[in-house]
């Protein structure tokens, strides 16, 4: 029992911190918001420090309900970093309007507990509980600005559609349970192998279960055709919340999907690969085409995240160790690029300090704020995957995995669609560099956020190449835990 | 020179200059950029003087492989890369001088973009790692996109998008092919090793086509050349010089370095495609050039036609053709760069590129008219200029590959003479049609230095091409040894003439 508790130490740290901080908030009310935020960041750091499995060991806990391995460790480190960055972003952004409430860091902490459970789930029920815990916190976060109708609408939309997706997922889980007699990933894998080599082949029940489970999770990673909520929620939710949605939860959901597909449903790779390939190509194409006409930068980044998930799914379609490693690498770099872009969106405020979201307001940013424009241009070129920026490498690894898995045609089509998405990233660069200057943005004096923005910029710059080797090695070690 | 990382330093100097430019004032940035490019040129001259002609195939090699990284910092040059690197290093200070007063807004960013571009271009020629090559090859897109888009003419945004997306689409397919190749070699990305790898014939065709997609766009070959006139017309003068002078050479270099030696069977099998597209390009773009009213567009179309001589020469599968193609690349880099500078000179004075607005410039700008004539003649291929050597060798090679090919290609020379001479006649001779054109002052010192330097190089290459052929001879030989076994059959029956004198035979075929 003690061993199991030690395996879930990060989740326990975060849960305890959330409960204690809640008491602090109850006593000192919203005045403590800033302190609570930094304490939450501290507890995320502590949780990251105590994640078991950095050494590559793999242990099951609570009778096989959770697993602590290299894969979970890598994902958790990325997720906690993303959550902490989202917290830093929020405290500066809300603070100016005086509507920053101390519940915000608590919700992020609880969501992080859920995300941690998602990536170390080795049982369908743990998976479901983790997913719900993450989602419930996220629904509240989406409607955090209660007085703003757009925010409330986003929260409601997210909740209704999210509940529907959870229902679909649960239905799929029940089918899998019904036709394999178990909810543990390991036993499901054994059952599928037995059925496959049996006389009747894979039963239709398992196939249906697989489809429903994939559909439910596809909603969480916002892969086409389950992406409809994404642009609306991203646009309506307060900007720091959008930054959070686009970063850590995406990584968690993608890691969860990868573990389930490879570990639990590995025997049925041929079956799920078709679905994943379809979702991948649909996401890269639709995420590219639909973004072109968007006038709102948050909506554009929403489509960009759909697009990027499509590329990561190409890595998943490759399956195998290289494929899984490429997914992890992709999501880690994607998270930095997308957080960096959102840090800049958070700085978009007109002369009176009101947030603006239109792409047109970026016009001529290179004249009014040259360094900010340079950073944004780097993030855009990086998201487009143009070398010498860091964003080239995730695409590189994903396509390499696809080519090595004899899916050269998929790599060729996928990489051709990346040209479509390059178009709208270029549009932002064009707006900032080629167009006449719009009124300048108001200045910011948030030191922590500026430091993070500089760090993210350096990461995507060619200097980040120094990290390609270590990061690739770490993701490969993490991926080996699943095989 | 062992142990002295001269290639890395050549790459680093412009980058450091670019960063310094970002922090400098407009005038400071100009001087920093000029100093950085001149320093790089000086280092380049040192490089050439230390290069051992006939020595090892790869010289000045550097290798640093970071742990677990998918690519290595592997640099090294052979004679072909040396010549093209020198071309880039030579043109860069001239570009900076050409932008000295023509660029008025956001000078520091402009100079930084140019210096960044220089690193990317020479990096392409130096890279010995497949993916390092790709990074340099692609990264040049970003500064060029900004140069066209920020400092270009009226249609600059359309042109910059077209340039970026066209070339990106071509390149990404090449990346997939590269990934396949490293999969085949179990992760070996070292170019000299890949050059000796025999890829399966079936796969060669696909790989060749993927590389072709990239290089044909960069080259540019008909029918994917349409980005070039737009990009040229909208780019500032120096941008056009670099575009025509060096960026277009990346495609030709790619064919020589990758397509031909790595996929010899596919090259032979698909040579007809190259021949066909090149012939269409020569005739069609020459005719299009004939009817242009915009000087820059005319020269841009003539570039497409000249590049077709390069592709024909490369895929002629013989020494004359390859030598010719390489010399055309060098001479076209100098000549078209100089022609764009000539356009820039009068554009700076009158702010129009309409041919009809000028006339009789030989009266009030005699020095300009003289230099312009030299470059016109070089473009036409007059003996004694660089253009002749390249085109003659290339056509000789073409004749040995296919007589009909040579027949078609030669029409291009005639058409080329037609549009270039007509252009020169309308601009420089006759009576001036406009008072403002007649009042333009002659070249100033800065312009004279730039054009004079190129003129000297053009004459040098035309009168004593051996200086440029000698460093490349052994590499062309190695290339031929690799591709001759799969050369396609030819219909030409060259009869041996009188036996050459013994010492002339040793000199080779020029």
Kindly describe this structure.
The complex is a heterodimer of chains A (483) and B (510). Chain A has 21 helices and two strands. With 483 residues, chain A is mainly alpha-helical. In chain A, strands 1-2 form a two-stranded antiparallel sheet. With 510 residues, chain B is mostly helical. Chain B is 74% helix and 2% strand. Chain B contains 23 helices and two strands. Chain B has helices at 6-22, 26-50, 79-98, 107-126, 130-139, 141-151, 156-184, 191-195, 201-218, 227-234, 237-262, 264-269, 271-290, 295-314, 319-350, 361-364, 366-380, 386-401, 403-428, 435-438, 445-463, 466-483, 502-507, and strands spanning 59-64, 73-77. Chain B has a two-stranded antiparallel sheet. In chain B, strand 1 and strand 2 form a beta hairpin. The longest helix of chain B has 32 residues, at 319-350. Chain B is globular. Chain B starts with 5 loop residues before the first helix and ends with a helix. The mean pLDDT of chain B is 87.
Please give the structural blueprint:
The complex is a heterodimer of chains A (483) and B (510).
Chain A (H helix, E strand, L loop, with lengths): L1 H6 L1 H20 L4 H17 L9 E3 L4 E3 L1 H26 L7 H17 L4 H19 L6 H32 L4 H13 L6 H18 L7 H8 L2 H8 L1 H17 L4 H21 L7 H21 L2 H27 L18 H4 L1 H15 L7 H13 L3 H26 L13 H14 L4 H16 L3
Antiparallel strand pairs in A: 1-2
Helix pairs in contact in A: 2-3, 2-5, 3-4, 3-5, 4-5, 4-11, 4-12, 4-15, 4-21, 5-6, 5-12, 6-7, 7-9, 7-10, 9-12, 9-13, 10-11, 10-14, 11-15, 12-15, 13-14, 13-19, 14-15, 14-18, 14-19, 15-17, 15-18, 15-20, 15-21, 17-19, 17-20, 18-19
Chain B lengths: L5 H17 L3 H25 L8 E6 L8 E5 L1 H20 L8 H20 L3 H10 L1 H11 L4 H29 L6 H5 L5 H18 L8 H8 L2 H26 L1 H6 L1 H20 L4 H20 L4 H32 L10 H4 L1 H15 L5 H16 L1 H26 L6 H4 L6 H19 L2 H18 L18 H6 L3
Antiparallel strand pairs in B: 1-2
Supply the helix-strand structural class of chain B.
Answer: mainly alpha
**H/E topology pattern of chain B:** HHEEHHHHHHHHHHHHHHHHHHHHH
Series of secondary-structure elements of chain A, N-terminal to C-terminal: HHHEEHHHHHHHHHHHHHHHHHH
Q: Return the average pLDDT of chain B rounded to an integer.
A: 87
- Please give the radius of gyration of chain B in angstroms: 22 Å
Give the overall silhouette of chain B.
Answer: globular
Mean pLDDT of chain A: 90
For the biggest sheet of chain B, the summary is: 2 strands, antiparallel
Radius of gyration of chain A: 21 Å
User: What's the story with the biggest beta sheet of chain A?
Assistant: 2 strands, antiparallel
Shape of chain A: globular
Multimeric state of these chains?
heterodimer
Straight-line distance between termini of chain B? 32 Å
């Amino acid at each position: 029992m003690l061993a199991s508790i030690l395996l879930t130490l990060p989740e326990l740290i975060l849960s305890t911190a959330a409960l204690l901080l809640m008491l602090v908030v109850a006593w000192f009310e919203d005045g403590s918001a800033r302190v609570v935020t930094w304490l939450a960041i501290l507890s995320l750091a502590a949780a990251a420090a105590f994640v078991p499995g950095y050494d590559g060991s793999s242990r099951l806990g609570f009778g096989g309900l959770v697993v602590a391995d290299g894969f979970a460790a890598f994902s958790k480190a990325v997720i906690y970093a993303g959550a902490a960055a989202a917290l830093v972003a929020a405290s500066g952004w809300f603070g100016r309007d005086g509507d920053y409430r101390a519940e915000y860091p608590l919700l992020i902490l609880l969501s992080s507990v859920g995300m941690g459970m998602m990536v170390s789930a080795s049982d369908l029920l743990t998976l479901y509980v983790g997913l719900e815990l993450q989602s419930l916190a996220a629904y509240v976060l989406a409607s955090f600005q209660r007085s703003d109708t757009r925010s409330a609408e986003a929260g409601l939309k997210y909740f209704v559609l999210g509940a529907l997706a959870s229902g679909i997922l649960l239905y799929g889980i029940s089918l899998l349970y019904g036709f394999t007699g178990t909810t543990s990933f390991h036993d499901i894998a054994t059952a599928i192998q037995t059925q496959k080599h049996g006389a009747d082949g894979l039963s239709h029940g398992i196939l249906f279960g697989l489809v429903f489970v994939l559909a439910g999770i596809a909603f969480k990673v916002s892969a086409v055709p389950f992406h409809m909520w994404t642009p609306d929620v991203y646009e309506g939710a307060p900007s720091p919340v959008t930054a959070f949605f686009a970063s850590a939860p995406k990584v968690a959901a993608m890691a969860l999907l990868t573990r389930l597909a490879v570990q639990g449903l590995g025997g049925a790779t041929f079956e799920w690969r078709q679905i994943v390939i379809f979702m991948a190509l649909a996401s890269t194409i639709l995420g590219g085409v639909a973004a072109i006409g968007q006038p709102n930068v948050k909506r554009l980044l929403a489509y960009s995240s759909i697009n990027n998930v499509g590329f990561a799914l190409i890595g998943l379609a490759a399956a195998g160790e290289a494929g899984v490693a490429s997914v992890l690498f992709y999501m880690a770099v994607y998270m930095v690029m997308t957080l960096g872009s959102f840090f800049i969106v958070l700085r978009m405020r007109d002369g009176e300090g009101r947030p603006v979201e239109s792409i047109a307001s970026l016009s001529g940013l290179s004249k009014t704020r040259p360094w900010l424009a340079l950073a944004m241009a780097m993030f855009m070129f990086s998201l487009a995957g143009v070398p010498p920026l860091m964003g080239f490498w995730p695409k590189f690894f994903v396509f390499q995995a696809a080519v090595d898995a004899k899916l050269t045609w998929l790599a060729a089509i996928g990489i051709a669609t990346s040209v479509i998405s390059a178009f709208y990233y270029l549009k932002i660069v064009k707006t900032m560099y080629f167009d006449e200057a719009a009124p300048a943005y108001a200045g910011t004096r948030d030191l922590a956020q500026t430091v993070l923005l500089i760090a993210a910029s350096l990461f995507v710059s060619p200097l980040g190449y120094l990290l390609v080797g270590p990061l690739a090695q770490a993701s490969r070690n993490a991926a080996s835990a699943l095989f | 020179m062992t142990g002295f990382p001269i290639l890395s330093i050549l790459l680093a100097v412009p980058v450091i200059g670019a960063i310094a430019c970002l922090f400098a004032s407009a005038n400071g940035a100009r001087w920093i950029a000029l100093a950085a490019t001149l320093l790089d040129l000086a280092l380049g001259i040192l490089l050439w003087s230390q290069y051992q002609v006939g020595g090892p195939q790869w010289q000045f090699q550097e290798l640093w492989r970071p742990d677990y990284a998918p690519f290595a910092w592997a640099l090294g040059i052979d004679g072909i890369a040396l010549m093209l690197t020198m071309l880039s290093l030579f043109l860069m200070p001239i570009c900076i001088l050409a932008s000295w007063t023509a660029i008025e807004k956001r000078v520091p960013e402009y100079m930084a973009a140019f210096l960044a571009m220089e690193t990317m271009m020479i990096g392409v020629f130096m890279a010995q790692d497949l993916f390092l090559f790709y990074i340099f090859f692609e990264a040049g897109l970003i500064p060029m996109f900004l140069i066209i888009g920020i400092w270009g003419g009226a249609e600059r945004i359309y042109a910059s998008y077209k340039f970026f997306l066209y070339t990106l689409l071509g390149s990404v397919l090449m990346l997939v092919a590269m990934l396949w190749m490293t999969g085949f070699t179990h992760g070996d990305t070292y170019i000299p090793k890949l050059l000796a790898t025999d890829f399966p014939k079936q796969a060669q065709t696909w790989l060749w086509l993927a590389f072709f997609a990239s290089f044909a766009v960069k080259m540019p070959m008909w029918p994917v050349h349409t980005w070039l006139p737009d990009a040229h017309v909208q780019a500032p003068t120096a941008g056009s010089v670099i575009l025509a002078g060096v960026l277009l050479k990346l495609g030709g270099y790619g064919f020589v370095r990758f397509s031909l030696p790595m996929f010899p069977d596919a090259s032979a099998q698909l040579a007809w495609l190259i021949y066909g597209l090149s012939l269409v390009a020569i005739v069609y773009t020459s005719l299009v050039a004939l009817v242009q009213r915009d000087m820059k567009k005319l020269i841009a179309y003539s570039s497409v036609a000249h590049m077709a001589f390069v592709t024909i020469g490369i895929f002629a599968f013989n020494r004359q053709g390859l030598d010719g193609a390489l010399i055309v690349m060098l001479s076209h880099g100098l000549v078209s760069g100089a022609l764009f500078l000539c356009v820039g000179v009068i554009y700076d004075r009158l702010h129009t590129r309409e041919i009809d607005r000028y006339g009789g410039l030989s009266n009030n700008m005699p020095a300009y008219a003289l230099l312009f004539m030299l470059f016109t003649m070089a473009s036409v291929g007059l003996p004694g200029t660089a253009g002749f050597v390249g085109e003659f060798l290339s056509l000789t090679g073409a004749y040995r590959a296919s007589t009909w090919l040579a027949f078609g290609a030669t029409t291009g020379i005639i058409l080329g003479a037609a549009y270039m001479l007509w252009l020169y006649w309308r601009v420089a001779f006759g009576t001036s049609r406009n008072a403002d054109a007649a009042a333009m002052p002659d070249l100033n010192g800065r312009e004279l230095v730039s054009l004079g330097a190129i003129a000297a190089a053009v004459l040098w290459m035309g009168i004593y091409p051996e200086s440029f052929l000698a460093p490349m001879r052994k590499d062309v030989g190695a290339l031929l040894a690799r591709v001759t076994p799969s050369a396609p059959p030819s219909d030409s029956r060259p009869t041996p003439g009188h036996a050459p004198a013994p010492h002339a035979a040793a000199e080779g075929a020029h």
